[in-house]
Amino acid sequence: MYVELQRSGDGPLLAPLPPATLAALCRRAFGPMEPMAAAELLRSGRFNTTYRITLGSGRTVILRVAPPSTAHLFSHERGLLRREYAVQPVLREAVRQVPRLLFQDFSQQLLARDYVFLECLPGRLWDELQGSLSPRRNEALWRQLGGLVRAIHDRAGAAYGRPGAEAGFACWSAAVLADIDGLIGDLRQLGLDTAAAEVFRAQVLAHESALDRCGPPRLLHGDLWPKNILIDPTGEVPVITGLLDAERARWGDPAAEWIFGFLAIPEAFWTAYGANLSGPALAPEALPRRHIYNGRGALQLMLEAWRWRLDDGFARRILAESIDGLRATTRPPIRNRDAGDGRSATAPRSGCTPPPLVPALP
Q: I need a surface site. Which of 99, 111, 245, 329 has the fewest CB within 10 A?
């Protein structure tokens, strides 16, 4: 189902820095006794400007710099580097393949952009090697990834929503609706047609009770696919060495990981994970949530299509499929929470966290 958007050039989000600025950032982070010796701009990133920095001692680190203030950011993209900073320690407690945070500076004094230095992990991007690996070796990597994702999802949180300074939500439905409202607001601000998006939102309101049956908030990485995974392919069995780019992490329903609805994930992953959360294998009571997550992803793809001047027809088709899927499920009457009971559509409600639906690992 996933359609990758083809980009030309760096685009408006990536803004490389002059060598003098890079050197100054290294002095701020590591002191005058550890100067920058070399810097390589990495082209694999899509949002943050990323460098592989070699220091005077020979140590290699990763520098990630947020987009400049001139970049047009959507509501869900603001403060992403700060979100990654906030969630990094929790992720490292869950899995050792997450890079260690070395330094962060959000003061914007030395540079009018947020930036962080991270440990440089060994390995190569799985996406770059996937086509050259045998099916058996790729299957071994999917199996490893299933176990790692499960370890991440086993971390429980206190509230739903984005980590960091933002206040969380007592209900998953409130967090999801806040996200959808932000996406629709972005579409409306751009002058794009939001008629289908409004229909989708009404269907989400009709199925909010299904969202709130997802169980307690769990840690989601938010962007775990081969483009963000480092591997060591040299051994008899390839090994995952790094899980990168956690800026889209959140606390919520494990099934909301976007890869579960938009990528064809092999059975080896689900066996290691302990449960199959893809669409075809879901129980009827979980299907509305899958349609909601796919529809939310479609809204984001519509914004991406605008950014890169692409036809958003494929995203609108996914949105239409999500609406049809929600309409086909049993649903309670729509409550007008904007007018009927005096609360906003994103107002959290108490007592809406039943036992988890995802079975515990043995």
A: 329
**Contact status, residue 81 vs residue 117, Cβ threshold 8 Å:** no
For residue 94, pLDDT beyond 70: yes
Strands (DSSP E) found in the chain: 36-42, 49-55, 60-65, 101-105, 115-119, 124-125, 218-220, 229-232, 239-243, 250-252
Q: How far is the C-alpha of 30 from the C-alpha of 117, rounded, in Å?
A: 10
From CA 55, how far away is CA 176, in angstroms rounded? 43
pTM: 0.87
* Residue 343 predicted with pLDDT over 80: no
pLDDT at 288 over 80: yes
> Please, how many CA atoms are within 13 Å of residue 4, restricted to the half-sphere of its CB?
10
Spatial distance between the Cα atoms of 81 and 106, rounded to a whole number of angstroms: 9
DSSP secondary structure of 9-36: SSTTT-----HHHHHHHHHHHH-TTS-E
Query: Which one has a higher pLDDT value, 344 or 261?
Result: 261
Task: Examine the pLDDT at 203 and tell me if it is beyond 90.
Answer: yes
Burial class (CB in 10 A: 0-12, 13-18, 19+), 133: middle
The one-letter code for the residue type at 90 is V
CA 318 to the chain's CA centroid: 19
Q: How confident is the model at residue 308 (pLDDT cuts 50, 70, 90)?
A: confident
- 285-311 average pLDDT score: 94
**CA 125 to each of CA 54, 96, 129: distance values in angstroms, whole numbers, following the listed order:** 19, 17, 7
Q: Of 249 and 1, which is predicted with more confidence?
A: 249
In one-letter notation, the amino acid at residue 76 is: H
CA distance 318 to 328: 15
